[in-house]
Amino acid sequence: MKLLLCWRIVVSDLRAFVEHKCPNGVRFQRLGDIATLVRGNGLSKKQLIGSDVGAIHYGQIYTKYSRFTTTTISRVDRDIADKLVVVNPGDVIVACTSENMEDVCTPLAWLGEEPIVTGGHTVTIRHRLDPKYLVYWLGSQAFQRQKRAIAGGVKVIDVAARKLATVMVPVPPLEVQSEIVKVLDRFTQLEAELEARKAQFSWYGHMIFPEEGECEWLSISDVAKRVSSGGTPSARNPDFYDGGTIPWLRTNEVRFQDIHDTAVYITESAVKKFLGKVDTRKLRDCCYLWRIGRQICGECDFSDNKSTLLQY
């Protein structure tokens, strides 16, 4: 929650900065008016065994690189490089052919110090923008909507350079582009850290909770005092809610954490009509499971709605 709040503050500050620098709004321009788009040609995987010039094959954009790179994993001989499209530092390469709509036009910014080359099924964008800003924008939902309108093909999806040149790009001042990049870089780093934490948690979970056969395994009913379901008093009946004093736990309050109170309270009549079968008014020290697998530990007396309750 604190992390989400901090992120909202950052985004709010960025929005204020953009409004200050662009009081009349951000100008949109055709990509073809602010950049030169060059369709690639040639370059097979068999040619990626040279040693002279760095090269990026369109398939590698999908499988070997992220959004930006300063090095290439492949090189080609000089005589082959002379026949290919040159990619200068700061240029953005777009893989314009894919088997699915989601991946087509995946971008890669070349941030190395020397020119490299690329081949067929790519479009090299030589532009006047911050290269990382352009890559982030090409990954945005705003671009994805425009892309669907210009892409062609059924089994193989392709976007022609002349059609890619027609998309409208927001072009704030370079100072604003740079600030946007800083914020998105921080968010990307945070994403990577969260993924690393998930992997670490998964590893520790495997170590702590052994596979079946390494220890005694029991069903939930063997370790729980009771497994039961709740009920939902009708929201149309005020007698079930007005003046209620019994905490009522709803599924949207189940967030993988301990719970000490609930947002809604119900009356005794609601408990008797909908929850009387299992006497859910005293559910301290229990594990509450929602249908999709979320759980919390209850540390107060409450009633629950239509989910699974484990008391132990």
TrEMBL record:
<feature type="domain" description="Type I restriction modification DNA specificity">
    <location>
        <begin position="25"/>
        <end position="198"/>
    </location>
</feature>
<comment type="similarity">
    <text>Belongs to the type-I restriction system S methylase family.</text>
</comment>
<dbReference type="InterPro" id="IPR044946">
    <property type="entry name" value="Restrct_endonuc_typeI_TRD_sf"/>
</dbReference>
<keyword id="KW-0238">DNA-binding</keyword>
<dbReference type="InterPro" id="IPR000055">
    <property type="entry name" value="Restrct_endonuc_typeI_TRD"/>
</dbReference>
<protein>
    <recommendedName>
        <fullName>Type I restriction modification DNA specificity domain-containing protein</fullName>
    </recommendedName>
</protein>
<dbReference type="GO" id="GO:0009307">
    <property type="term" value="P:DNA restriction-modification system"/>
</dbReference>
<comment type="subunit">
    <text>The methyltransferase is composed of M and S polypeptides.</text>
</comment>
<dbReference type="Pfam" id="PF01420">
    <property type="entry name" value="Methylase_S"/>
</dbReference>
<keyword id="KW-0680">Restriction system</keyword>
<dbReference type="GO" id="GO:0003677">
    <property type="term" value="F:DNA binding"/>
</dbReference>
<dbReference type="InterPro" id="IPR051212">
    <property type="entry name" value="Type-I_RE_S_subunit"/>
</dbReference>
